[in-house]
Specification:
- The protein is of the alpha+beta class and 487 residues long.
- It has two domains: 263 residues, Aminopeptidase; 213 residues, Alpha-Beta Plaits, CATH 3.30.70.360.
- The protein is built from twelve helices and 23 strands.
- The strands form five sheets. Strands 9, 11, 12, 13, 14, 16, 17, 18 and 19 form a nine-stranded antiparallel β-sheet that branches. A six-stranded mixed β-sheet has the order 1-2-6-3-7-21, covered by helices on one side.
- Keywords: Hydrolase.
- It holds the Pfam family Peptidase_M20.
- It comes from Salinimicrobium oceani.
């Protein structure tokens, strides 16, 4: 199946992407891809090392005539977000990604594609392997665990890299040159509850919310897409307020950095309420669908009878839960007053789990302004703590402050205009890039981010543009040719 991908142009890029996508590489379980990359560097006869946390660094000397240019660090992350449709039978830890061509797009069959950041990794591999591409001395930095904590970038020691310029290949619009990004913090709220016996003379229902677009909780948060956890809570709140509905279980969303697409809940209601409950829940679901029919045309919600559960959540804790989830902000919290169209601060209500006497809620709060990040995280923390939850803030990482005077920015800006007869978009993004973290230990390194066009990252709808990859590949090669000379 992936032979169709290998035939695409530029072949060096797509072939390396196909090689990479044959290797399972979930975040925090990158052992196989680390070994794969280590063997790749060693087989090329290049200086290759794996640091204490698992980052792989491969060094390649300058091609003849380029020895007097500044040393360039090429950087991408090895891990990928693993998301699949509920009806997809796929084992991420043991299977390679199954890809296919759909017009101008490369897609995966029912799963994330891994173009984020696999196309950046493949670019670096193709350049390292090539004997024809002109370039200065290179340090290829392949970081781990970018998607679930950025621990690879955080763990990179000062002094390991000697480069003057860092090219981060993790931007998802081919007309954009990234000069800044948001920082983030993980919020985890937990509390126990007692399971009570299912009341007598009740009927059990399974409620399903599915068909939402999902997407990247940073880059796509501005679109105002539906959040399955928020939709489910509206339904549960209505059922509780109007019919005394009891909650037995909730399983909504998944990874912090993915807008949740699906949620399921098991609830019980007095049998005497059966007809009224079904009718009112149907009306509420219809209202939500009408609200989001433009943004979420595939949204599907259903309610059906199911087996009696083992127990239900104690009533007073249930009330605290649904009210806390209602109170927690989700989506855009504040737009940047300085950069038009940029989200400054946001939150993603990513995961809600209720089972076996434990409630767990996961959020990811992002902001390009540290004080605003603290403000929003305190707001969310307060809502949960008032409901009796234990709240942990962890995995905080800094943003990357824009530098409009960056020398390498001027190089890329001029080259883009020469090659495309239009100016590039110089922008900061509302996503976590590793530049901010790396910049703490390498404050004098000149950093920039760019990449090919990718849509639907962090969701099974992820796809990479073939024509954009061709445009991007040519741009990368020209950038390497035009790296400034050492001072």
């Amino acid at each position: 199946m992936n032979e169709e991908i290998r035939a695409l142009e530029p072949k060096p890029l797509w072939n390396k992407f196909a090689d990479l996508n044959a290797v399972p590489r979930p975040s925090k379980k990158e052992e196989r891809v680390i070994e794969f990359m280590k063997n790749f560097g060693n087989n090329l006869g290049l200086e290759t090392e794996v640091d204490e946390v698992g980052n792989v660094i491969i060094r390649k000397p300058a091609t003849p005539g380029m020895e007097n240019r500044k040393v360039v660090v090429l950087q991408s992350h090895l891990d990928m977000v693993h998301q699949k449709n509920n009806d997809s039978d796929f084992d991420f830890e043991n299977q390679g990604i199954e890809m296919y061509v759909d017009g101008d797009w490369v897609r995966a069959k029912g799963t994330t594609l891994g173009a984020d950041n696999g196309l950046g990794v493949a670019t670096m591999m193709a350049i390292l392997e090539s004997k024809e591409i002109a370039h200065p001395a290179l340090e290829a930095l392949f970081t781990i665990d970018e998607e679930t904590g950025m621990t690879g970038a955080m763990g990179l020691r000062p002094g390991v890299l000697k480069g003057d310029i860092l090219l981060n290949l993790d931007t998802e619009e081919d007309n954009e040159i990234g000069i800044g990004c948001a920082g983030g913090v993980d919020i985890t709220a937990t509390r126990p509850y007692k399971e009570e016996e299912v009341p007598v003379d009740t009927i059990t229902y399974k409620i399903v919310v599915k068909g939402l677009q999902g997407g990247h909780s940073g880059m796509d948060i501005i679109k105002g897409l539906g959040n399955a956890n928020k939709f489910m809570n509206r339904i549960l709140f209505g059922g509780f307020e109007n019919f005394g509905m009891r909650i037995a279980a909730i399983n909504g969303g998944g990874l912090r950095n993915a807008i949740p697409r699906e949620s399921e809940a098991v609830v019980v209601v007095d049998k005497i309420q059966k007809e009224d409950f079904s009718a009112e829940m149907g009306k509420l679901m219809q209202s939500i669908q009408q609200e989001y029919q433009t943004l979420e045309p595939k949204l599907h919600m259903e309610i059906s009878e199911t087996e009696i559960p083992g127990g239900v959540m104690e009533l007073w804790v249930q009330e605290l839960l649904v009210k806390a989830l209602y109170a927690v902000p989700n989506g855009v919290y504040r737009m940047s007053p300085d950069i038009e169209g940029l989200v400054e601060t946001s939150n993603n209500l990513a995961r809600v789990s209720v089972k076996n006497g434990k409630i767990e809620v996961l959020c990811l709060t992002r902001s390009s302004v540290e004080s605003s990040k603290i403000d929003l995280s305190n707001s969310i923390r307060s809502a949960f703590e008032l409901a009796g939850f234990e709240v942990e803030l962890s995995g905080a990482y800094p943003g990357w402050a824009p530098n409009m005077e960056s020398p390498i920015l001027k190089v890329l800006d001029n080259l883009y205009q020469e090659m495309n007869s239009e100016k590039a978009e110089i922008a900061a993004c509302h996503a976590g890039l590793e530049c901010g973290i790396l910049g703490k230990n390498y404050p004098d390194m000149d950093m920039i981010s760019f990449g090919p066009t990718i849509r639907g990252a962090h969701s099974p709808d992820e796809r990479a543009s073939i024509s954009s990859a061709q445009k991007y590949w040519k741009f990368v090669l020209e950038v390497l040719k035009n790296v400034p000379e050492k001072v």
